[in-house]
Design goal:
The structure holds 2 protein chains of 2 kinds.
Chain A (H helix, E strand, L loop, with lengths): L19 E6 L5 E6 L3 H26 L5 H8 L4 H8 L3 H7 L2 H4 L4 H11 L3 H6 L4
Antiparallel strand pairs in A: 1-2
Helix pairs in contact in A: 1-2, 3-4
Chain B lengths: L12 H12 L6 H7 L6 E8 L2 E5 L6 H10 L2 E5 L4 H13 L4 E5 L18 E9 L2 E5 L7 E4 H8 L11 E6 L6 H16 L7 H36 L6 H17 L3 H29 L7 H26 L1
Antiparallel strand pairs in B: 1-2, 3-8, 4-5, 4-8, 5-6, 6-7
The chains are: A mainly alpha, B alpha+beta.
C-alpha cells in the first residue's frame, strides 16, 4: 500500500487518543511507517461484532426477566465472556457454571459461591442476586 | 524509578516488545527484521475451535513464537518466568526494575484500562514492557500505543492474571544474553525457510492449503448456516486479518519491509522483487476485506456473492503459493 492511500477514517481508536502504525511504501517504493486514525472497513467489522454482543446481552436480559436463565448468564454476556472464560475466572468447572445458569439452581447457591461470580463480574453479591432483568 | 527505555510504536505487539527490548540492550533490529527472522507470517484454520462464536482463523503463529524463534536464530537468550502467586510476580518484576532490566509481560486485553472500550476482549496474548515504577504506578510501554502509559499495582495484577484461553499466569520475559556478533545473514535465511515451509505445508490446517479450505467453506456457510451467521464469520475474518496485533494485509506489508531490508543485507536483488510481490498480495488482502464489508452492508445482495468472495480468496492463495515457492528458491 502506498503512503498516500493509507485511510485516515474515524474509528474507535479516537476515544483513547490512539493511532495505529502501518508499513507503507513511499514514492520510490521504499518501505516506511505511517500512522493511521482508522479504516472504515475495520470499523464495520468491529461494529458488527459489538452489535452481536449487544444482541446477546439483550436476549440474556429477557431470559432472566422471563425466568429462563439466571443472572449469571446476563452478567457473563455483559462482560463479553463465554462459559470457558467465566468458569476460569470463577474457578469452577464449566458444567457447574452451566448448572448455575438455571434460575432454580441459582436460588440455592450459597453466599461463598455467589461471591466467586460477583468477583468475576466485578460487582457485589447483592447486585448479582437482585438482578431480575426488568 | 524510571529506567532509560525508548518507546517506539509498532504495528504488532510481540515484534514491538522484542524490538524495543533488544534496542534497549544495544542490538538495533527493526520490527520487520524480528518479524521476518521469527517467521511471523502464518495462517491457520481451526474450524472446530469457536472463538467469539465463529470458527478460529489466525494469521499469526502461537503467541510468543515470533520472539522465541527470532531469539534462537540470533543466538539471544531470553529468560521466561511464570508465577502461581501474583505477589511473587510483582516482587520479581520490581526486582528486575531495580536491576535496571526493562521487562516484557504477557497480559490480557480485557482489563487494560487505557485501551478503547471497543477493543476490550478476552484476548490474553497481548505484550507490553514495564520500564519503571513511580508513585506506586508501573510505567508501561505498550508498543501499539502512540504514547507510554501507566497502570496501578492492582490494574497490572489483573491483566497479568487474566483468565480464559492462554492465561498469562504472570508471564514475564527479558533478554539475558546477546552475542557480540550476531550472524544476521544466517538468521534471515533460517527465518525465510521456516516461513516457506509452514505456508507450503502439506496439511490442510495451516498455510496456503488452510486458506483454500476457508475460501471453499464460504459458500457452504451461506448454504447451511444462512446469511447472518456467514456474515458474522466473515466479519471475524476481517477482524483477524486487519485488527491491531494480527494481520493479513498488514502482516504482508511488514514482511515486504523485511524482504526489502533482507535484500540489502544478503545482497540479493531477487528479494527486492519479492518484496514488491508480497506488497501487491497485501493490497489484495485489503481489497478482499473491502469486498467482505460490502457484502454485509447490502444485506439482500445476489446469491453468488459468496461464490465471488470464495474465488478472490482462492486467487490470493494461488498467488501466495507461487510467492513462497519463488522465495524458497531465492535464498
Amino acid at each position: 500500500m502506498k503512503k498516500q492511500d493509507l485511510p485516515q477514517d474515524e474509528s474507535n481508536l479516537k476515544s483513547a487518543n490512539m493511532t495505529e502504525v502501518l508499513y507503507v511504501t513511499d514514492e520510490n517504493n521504499n518501505y516506511t511507517t505511517a500512522n493511521s486514525t482508522g479504516w472504515d472497513i475495520k470499523k464495520a467489522a468491529l461494529d458488527e461484532s459489538l452489535a452481536l454482543i449487544n444482541e446477546r446481552i439483550e436476549e440474556a436480559r429477557q431470559d432472566v426477566a422471563n425466568n429462563i436463565a439466571s443472572p449469571i448468564v446476563y452478567f457473563m454476556e455483559l462482560n463479553k465472556m463465554d462459559l470457558q472464560v467465566l468458569a476460569s475466572y470463577a474457578g469452577m468447572w464449566q458444567w457447574r457454571v452451566k448448572r448455575h445458569a438455571k434460575p432454580k439452581v441459582f436460588k440455592t447457591l450459597s453466599e461463598s459461591v455467589l461471591k466467586k461470580y460477583a468477583d468475576a463480574f466485578g460487582i457485589s453479591v447483592d447486585e448479582l442476586k437482585n438482578f431480575n432483568g426488568k | 524509578m524510571k529506567l532509560n527505555f525508548e518507546h517506539h510504536q509498532t504495528a504488532h505487539c510481540e515484534n514491538g516488545v522484542a524490538s524495543n527490548l533488544l534496542i534497549n540492550k544495544g542490538l538495533k533490529l527493526s520490527e520487520p527484521m524480528i518479524f521476518g527472522i521469527g517467521s511471523g507470517l502464518f495462517f491457520v484454520y481451526l474450524p472446530f475451535l469457536k472463538v467469539n462464536f465463529a470458527p478460529g482463523f489466525s494469521y499469526r503463529p502461537m503467541p510468543g513464537a515470533i520472539f522465541s524463534k527470532a531469539a534462537k536464530r540470533l543466538g539471544i537468550k531470553i529468560k521466561r518466568e511464570k508465577f502461581s502467586n501474583p505477589k511473587d510476580a510483582q516482587l520479581a518484576l520490581e526486582k528486575n526494575l531495580e536491576n535496571n532490566v526493562p521487562t516484557g509481560l504477557q497480559v490480557g486485553v480485557f482489563n487494560l484500562t487505557y485501551f478503547p472500550e471497543e477493543y476490550k476482549f478476552h484476548f490474553n496474548a497481548h505484550n507490553l514492557v514495564v520500564y519503571g515504577k513511580e508513585d506506586g504506578r508501573f510505567l508501561i510501554s505498550d508498543p501499539v500505543m502512540d504514547y507510554t502509559t501507566s497502570l496501578s499495582e492492582a490494574e497490572l495484577e489483573k491483566v497479568r492474571y487474566a483468565k480464559g484461553a492462554l492465561p498469562p499466569k504472570g508471564h514475564m520475559y527479558y533478554p539475558t544474553h546477546i552475542p557480540e556478533n550476531v550472524n544476521l545473514e544466517e538468521a534471515i535465511k533460517k527465518g525465510i525457510k521456516d516461513t516457506c515451509k509452514n505456508m507450503l505445508a502439506p496439511v490442510p490446517l495451516i498455510g496456503v492449503k488452510a486458506m483454500r479450505w476457508v475460501a471453499k467453506s464460504i459458500p457452504k456457510w451461506a448454504d447451511k448456516k444462512g446469511t447472518k451467521v456467514t456474515n458474522h464469520y466473515l466479519g471475524q475474518l476481517i477482524r483477524m486479518q486487519e485488527e491491531i496485533g494480527t494481520g493479513g494485509g498488514g502482516f504482508r506489508f511488514i514482511y515486504g519491509a523485511f524482504l526489502q531490508e533482507a535484500a540489502v543485507i544478503l545482497k540479493n536483488d531477487e528479494l527486492k522483487e519479492l518484496s514488491k510481490e508480497i506488497t501487491a498480495i497485501g493490497d489484495l488482502w485489503r481489497d478482499f476485506a473491502v469486498d467482505i464489508a460490502r457484502v454485509y452492508k447490502n444485506r439482500n445482495s445476489k446469491s453468488n456473492i459468496y461464490q465471488e468472495l470464495s474465488k478472490s480468496m482462492l486467487h490470493i492463495a494461488d498467488l501466495e503459493e507461487a510467492f513462497y515457492k519463488k522465495l524458497r528458491k531465492a535464498i
